[in-house]
Amino acid sequence: MRSFASDNYSGVHPEIMQAIMEANEDHMSSYGADPVSAEAESLFKGLFGKQAKIFFLTTGTATNTLILRHLCKSWNSVICSHDAHINVDECGSPENMGIKLMLAETKNGKITVDAIKPLIPAEPDVHRAQPAVVSITQNTELGTLYSVDEIKAICDFAHSKGLVVHMDGARIANAAAALGVSFKEMTVDCGVDVLSFGGTKNGCMCAEAAVFITPELGKDFEYIRKQNLQLISKMRYVGAQFKALLTDELWKRNAEHSNALARELAEKAGAIKDVNITRPVEANGVFAIIPEYAIEKLQERFPFYVWDDQTGEVRWMTSWSTTAEDIENFCIALKELICRAAPLPLPGKRGCSTNANNAPREKEILN
Fold first, then answer.
1. Whole-number Å distance between alpha carbons of 78 and 169
2. In this model, does residue 358 exceed pLDDT 50?
3. 251-366 has which fold?
4. I need a labelling partner for 239 at 20 to 30 A (CA). Which of 42, 216, 297, 307 fits?
5. How many Å apart are CA 38 and CA 43, to the nearest integer?
6. Quick check: 364 pLDDT over 50?
């Protein structure tokens, strides 16, 4: 099965799997007091500064939720976008922790200072939850990117109001690669206070990290992590994954590959009749509207998600393991499904022309 549903569908990168196997060769101290985890932590500090406090976890939902739980008192709230993963795709986990989410208006998945302003009371109001955190996702759930200047503007405004800035970086490697900047330039230099650093979507098995760039905010987070079931006894296997991912810029190689394949997918699919690419393709996600009759049949061969049931918009994700052949096969299948049901084109209009040499291959793919 070759999937465009999520970069979570891809396997573990061979270099990361090799690192896990090497960490498995002998006994080591538990709960992160091992040399492999120490090396991984050192690599993180090289990227985000020696002051950063690093905590390893296993899932993105746990990382986001526990960071926000740690930063918020019971009367606080978190400002985020309508499309934020913490709002849409974490099964109410923040709310289950007593965290109120305040939703800012977005454009292509991004919030702005102007969207944040109405959610912050001019004066403290005992009747309202008090905002404590602004949370942004980089790259966004709609595949778009905050520029460095946009991140800095949000951080400067949030800090001027006494708020902390959290970045959900489930796909932060894709964002940094796409923008051509370092992690530091996109976080530390902009004023981001704490980061959920994602490894799982970029070639790891189950590796996430809470990175407290502002170190005092990370004080006592280890107790929140333990209390909420995320202190892994054999931490070295998480550390080994990050050690491999952050060595020789494997993170960047993986991200550049998946980003490039997303652009190729958008270009080739967008050239097919009745396929409309709906959003900017800035990282490794492609959003499109295709004929409704083609969706289910195409999903049987290449799993992907319908993003919006109302509009019929679908989402296609590429990963480190996506190949050019995957893109070619997908687009051939998509074109064939559309052409089978399409009426003959009007003169001068783009229609479905099928090269006779490709017809057997198309039938093979669809079967």
1. 16
2. no
3. Aspartate Aminotransferase, domain 1 (3.90.1150)
4. 216
5. 9
6. no
User: Cβ atoms within 10 A of the Cβ of 307, count?
Assistant: 19
The secondary structure of 208-238, three-state, reads: EEEEECCHHHHCCHHHHHHHCCCCCCCCHHH
b/e code 24-57 from CB counts within 10 Å (16+ = b): eeeebeeebebebbebbbebbeebbeeebbbbbb
pTM above 0.90, yes or no: yes
Backbone angles phi, psi at 129, to 5 degrees: -65, 140
What's the CA dihedral at 186, 173, 166, 147 to 10 degrees? 40
pLDDT in tens, 91-140: 999 999 999 999 999 989 999 999 999 999 988 899 999 999 999 999 99
**Dihedral angle, C-alpha 136, 141, 143, 146, nearest 10 °:** -10
* Rounded-to-integer distance, Cα 246 and Cα 201, Å: 14
Kindly indicate the confidence band of residue 347, based on its pLDDT and cuts at 50, 70 and 90: low
Could you tell me the residue ranges of all domains in the chain?
Answer: 11-247, 251-366
Nearest residue to 287 (alpha-carbon basis) of 176, 139, 148: 139
Structure tokens belonging to residue 86: 């913490």
pLDDT tens digits for range 246-286 = 999 999 999 999 999 999 999 999 999 999 999 999 999 99
User: pLDDT value at position 350?
Assistant: 52
Domain 11-247: which CATH number of 3.40.50.11810, 3.40.50.300, 3.40.50.11540, 3.40.640.10: 3.40.640.10
How far is residue 81's CA from residue 100's CA, in Å, rounded to a whole number? 13
d(CA 206, CA 226): 17
